[in-house]
Amino acid sequence: MLTGFDENSITAATAKLRNIFYPRSVALLGASDNPQRVGYNIFTSLSGSFQGSIYLVNPRLQAVQGYPVYSSLAAVPGPVDLAIIALNERATIAAIEECAACGVPGAVCVAGGFRETSEAGGGLEDELLAAAQRCAVPFVGPNTLGFINNAIGLNTTFYPMQLRRGNTSFISQSGGMGLSFICGAADAGLGLNKWVGAGNRTYFELADYLAFFGEDEGTEVIGLYLEGTEQAARLVRVAGSLKKPVVVYKAGRSGAADFATLTHTGSMAGAHAVYRDIFRQYGLYAVETMGELVAALKALSLAPLPRGRRIGLMTHTAGPSIVAADILLEWGCVLPPLAPQTMAKLQKLTGPNPPFALKNPLDVAGTGFMADVYGRYLELLADDPNVDMVITFFCHNSNPHWPFPSSEIVRVRQKSGKPLLACYISTAAHLPGERAILESGGVPLFATPEEAAQAALALVWQGGRNQAAIMGTTKRS
Amino acid sequence: MHALSLIRRFRDRGDLVLPEAEAKEVLEAAGIPTTRCHIVESAAQACSTAEAIGFPVVLKISSPKLLHKTEAGGVVLNLRTPRELTAACERLTARGRELDHAFTLILQQMAPPGVELIAGATADPHFGTVLMLGTGGIYTELFRDAVFRLPPLETGVADEMIAALRSYPLLNGYRGAAKRDLAALRHLLLRLSALVSAGPEIRELEINPLVVYPRGLLALDARIILQ
User: Fold this and answer.
1) How far does the CA of residue A363 sit from the closest CA of chain B (Å)?
2) Which of A366, B67, B117, B159 has the lowest CB atom count within 10 Å?
3) pLDDT cut 90: percent of chain A above it
C-alpha cells in the first residue's frame, strides 16, 4: 500500500492508473460461456462498446459466442495492456505472476476471499500485494467490481450496462453503493466519465484514485462514497489540492468511536464528526444521502458557478419554494429582496393591480401556466442584480395548453449567464424529454424541491471555494 | 522546543499519563498560560503557599490513576481562608488514601469565572492526530459541541474552528457580555497545533476547562497521554 502524502508516489500512482484505465487491449482471465458466471458477464460488459482488442482466456474453452478463447495469457496472439482476473483468490496470485511473464502492465483482481473474510484471507492478500510489487503489476481490487472508463467505452465490471457519457467520475468504497450511484445517476440523466470500485484498496488507496481523477482530462466533477480509511489525512489533502469539486457521501454516522480513548476529547470525537469537520477544512462537499449526492454532482456537472449565495426562487405554487427556502436558509443562503428596477419591470408586465405579490420567492400563481408568461417573469427574476442563482419550479398539468416551460427556461439561462436550476413537479414518465431540452441547455432538472435546493447549496459551496482560491492568489501575488 | 524536551523527559521516566501538574508544566513551556500547581505536603505548607499566591485557592488530589477528578470528589473549589483550606486538606488526604496511595495534593489559584471551553488533541484511527475545540467545563459531554481540524493549522483555519462552535456567541459578546479574547484563543490553537505536529509522542492532550477572559485565557486543568 502506498503510504504518506508523497508527491512522487501520487504521481507514480497516477501514471499507473492512467495505463490501467486506458488500455488498447484487454485480456479476460476466467472467461466463461455460462451466463451464471462472473466471467461471462464481464465478457458481455467488455464486448458492449469497447473498441480495443478483447482476448478471452480459459484453458477449458475453445470459443465464447464466436470469440476465440486462448488457453493461457501466453497464448494470446497480441500485446495485452490490461488483464481482468476473474479467478479465485489463489489463482489470482498466480495470474499476477503470469501477467509479469507476459509483459501485461496492469490488472483488475475481481475475487473476494481476502482480508475482508478472514485472517487467512489477509495472509493471501499480503501475498498478492508482494507478488504485484515484485512483478511490477499494479492492480485494482481485489474484492471489487472493477472499473468503468466511459470515455473509451470500457466496462470491466460484471454488470453489463450502457451509460450516458459525461464529465462526472466516481470512486466507491463499496460495490453496492457504487451501483446505487450508477443507477441514481442514470435515472437523473447524469453522465459518467469514470467509475471505480476500490475494493480492498490493496495496491491503490482512495487518495490515488482521487489524484488520478484530479488530473484526468475527461473528469470535471468527482463523487466519492466513503466508509472510512486509515489514510483519511492523505485523502483530504489530495482533495484539498484539487480545483475540481469533490462531493463525498460518508457512511457510518451511527458508528460510535471505534477506538479506546482516555479523555473527553477522544470520546467526543466519533468518526463521523471528525470526518465532517475535516472535509470542511479541506473543501470537500459532504452530503448525507445518495439522492443529495446525485443532485449535487449533477448541478456541478452542468451549471455554471454562482457569484454568491443570493438565490431567487420562482414558482406558481408556494409550497415547493417554501421547502426549498427552508433548506437554503438553514445552510446560509439568502433570499434577497427584489431590486427596485425589477419591481418596476414586473409592474409594467402585470399592470397596476398585480394578481400576485411582487417579491422573492416570486409566486406568479395561475399566470405561470402560460409558458411564455412564465418565461418573461423568470427572465426578470434572473436579471435582478441582487440574484446570483435562480431555482424555478413548475407543477405539470396534463392540459396540453399548459406545457412545460423548458425552452423558455433555457432561453433565460442563456441570456442571463447565471446558474438556473429547474424543479418539475410531475410523474417520472414526463421528465426524460424535458430533461433533454433543459440539460442540453445547461439547466439541471430535479424532481423534488429538496434535491433542487441541495444542488444549489453544492453550487454555492464550490462558487465560494473558487472565489477563495482567486482571492488567495490575489493576496499572495 | 522546550515543551518537547520536557515531554521526552517524562516519557523516558516511563510516565505515559501526565497528570495535571506535569501537563501544565508542558503547556507553560509551550506558551500556554495555566493556573500553576503547587505540590503541598501538609496543611501548614498549604496555608503558607496560599498566603503567597493569594486566596481564594483550589485544592486537588493529583494521581495518574485519577482522570476525572470532579466525579471522584477530588477537587475543592473556592477556599477563602486558612481554616477552610486546612479542613479541605484533611478531607482530601482521607479521600486520596482511598484512591491511590501515591497521591499528592496540589494547590492552585482559584481562577475567576469566564467562558469555559475544552481544547486538545486526540489520536483518530483514520486521520491520526486531530485537534479539537469544544464547549467545556463539566457539561462538555452533555452539549457535545466540538469542532475538529487536522493539524498543522493555518491562522484562518484556527479562526474558522472558533467560529464553528455553537457556543461561539458566548465568546463574541452574547447579550451584552464582554467579548472574549479571540486572539489569545487563536494563539492557543496555533500553539497546540505546533506542539502536536512537532511531538508525535503525544497521543492525547486535553485542557478542560480552558477559561477565556476578555483579556487572556487560562488552562485550569490539563492532562497529556503519551505513546
Assistant:
1) 35
2) A366
3) 86
